[in-house]
Amino acid sequence: MSIKILNQQQFNGGISISDKIGGQGAYAFSQGIDIHQDPTHFGLQIAPTKVSGSTVTDNIKWIVSGAPYDTNKYFYGDSGKIYQETAGGSWSVLRTVASSHGQGMCVYQNYLYYVQDSQIGRYGPLSGGAAFTDAWQTGLTNTSATGFAPCTAFSNLLIVGHGNIISTWDNTVWTLSKITLIPGHNVRSFSSLHEYVAFGTWRSTSGNIYESEEGYVFFWDGISNTFNFFVDVPEGACNAIQNTRNTLLGIMGSTGILYQDTLTYSNTFEKLQNFPKLKNNAWMETYPGAMNNWSGKTYWGVSNSNSTDIVRGVYEWGSISKAFPAALNLPFIISTGNTGSTVKITAVNGFGTSLYIAWNDGSTYGVDKVTKGNNYYTTGYIDTFFFDNGMMYKDKTALTLKVIHSPLTTGQSIQLGYNRNRNGFTMETAHSYSASDANPSQTRLSIPNSDGRFSEMATRVVLGSNGSTTPQIYSIGMIFDDLDNEGDF
Questions:
Q1: Cα distances (Å, whole numbers) of residue 359 to 51, 273, 285
Q2: Cα–Cα distance for residue pair 483/454, rounded to 1 Å
Q3: Which residues fall within 8 angstroms of residue 236, CB to CB, at 6 or more apart?
Q4: How far apart, in whole angstroms, are the C-alpha atoms of residue 304 and residue 206?
Q5: Could you give phi then psi for residue 49, rounded to 5 degrees?
């Protein structure tokens, strides 16, 4: 008999691409936890709250702020509805635009611009006396089949991508065909990097993300008569791109791969991470308006997929500081609590202390809001890697799981479980707060002899909160016998 201890007490490495190996502080999976307060512990994340009531009745694809011209937020749906949320939290449908699939929306020079199937409208001036002009400019490429024709403000220009054409407005002159791209490569998303506006493209005639086998990210300085250069994306469609700390992050292809471009001399995208739990025969999509920055990290959602394995929520990429590598995490699921195949995250954007999440859950639509200082999730969990002591072929015996955490207070709990040989998690009774608790700072689980022998073993820790406070996990450990007296087999 040789008793050993497996222990993990760093958790900022995030979700790994494997359920068995990863970098320092990584783990197999998590949901609803905050790993960025401190690299040596984690707790539950702030919970989203639905703020749109019953007002929203379609898939919102874009969320923008009227600042600095007004204090409203604007939302554009795939049936042509334009919604408004006032600073006081009042929601309304401002307008329903005909012949629109919510192709694109942005704010430029005191006006809200919204792209329709083959024209662009605007609403303003936002600072006072605003009125709608649906057919402000016409003759745009018909994008009704693909549903995306984004617009953005860059330098002194409004830039609109429709099909393979870039149009511009400098607040005086409208140029319908400022730049023409390669035929068949349609603009899907916009961002910026250094002195360039970047636009990601895809090849699709039906609007299906898996139809596109190639994509490009074009870079343009806003002055030249054509794009300055481009980067090939061999994985396929450029779902969404976002500037994060002077690098360009993107969700590429139909398998949700996260890429990064630092605009070096080689100017190539580098793969950062595959999407968790997505199998080889499945696809997923992120809408271009469902990837944005908030509080120093980048967030994006699962907008479409045929997978029943993935967890549908809002993922994040970032770190607590430059001293630690960026990591993947799943901090937010929608307010319905669902993460299955009925859920679509259609738009994400952050403003100040709040993050907005637009979603569709079956026949229900809504917008959630995460506001710093609000209540925590009532529950969330983390799964450790499967452990085999470097000898999967040889049995070991798990004896006890032990978690060190902050002292439990009223309404808090910790629940432990184990997954033996990939047969699913066995969860034990939760350790809940009690005034007479002799060990409020640790939770132990003695594994029954009948379940002790294993070739692989993983641990699940479920945190429970009272809403206003969350327990903090400092250490996850397991005592085991390596059974060295039994030989190799």
A1: 12, 24, 14
A2: 11
A3: 202, 209, 210, 212, 213, 214, 215, 252, 253, 254
A4: 14
A5: -125, 135
Structure tokens at 150: 């984004």
CATH superfamily of 49-371: YVTN repeat-like/Quinoprotein amine dehydrogenase (2.130.10.10)
Q: Return the number of other C-beta atoms located less than 10 Å from residue 281's C-beta.
A: 7
Q: Residue 174: beta bridge partners?
A: 169
- Chain segment 186-219, per-residue pLDDT in tens: 999 999 988 899 999 999 888 899 887 778 999 9
User: With contact defined as beta carbons under 8 Å apart, do 482 and 389 qualify?
Assistant: yes
Query: Alpha carbon of 219 to those of 260, 261, 268: distances in Å?
Result: 15, 12, 13
- pLDDT tens by residue, 32-82: 999 998 889 999 999 999 999 999 999 999 999 999 999 999 999 999 999
Collapsing DSSP to helix, strand or coil, 300 comes out as strand
Delimit the domains of the chain by residue range.
3-44+379-486, 49-371
Class of domain 3-44+379-486: mainly beta
The Cα–Cα gap between 354 and 366 comes to 16
Euclidean distance between the first and final Cα of the chain, in Å?
15
Q: Is residue 471 classed exposed, middle or buried when 0-12, 13-18 and 19+ CB atoms within 10 A define those classes?
A: buried
- Bridging pattern class, strands 431-432 and 413-420: antiparallel
User: What share of the chain has pLDDT > 90, as a percent?
Assistant: 85
Would the pTM count as exceeding 0.85?
Answer: yes
Which amino acid does the sequence have at 283? Answer: W
Q: Residue 51 corresponds to which tokens in the numbers above?
A: 């703020």
Q: Is omega for the bond preceding 39 within 30 degrees of 0, making it cis?
A: no
The one-letter amino acid code at 40 reads T
In the structure encoding, which two tokens stand for residue 462, read together?
């479920």
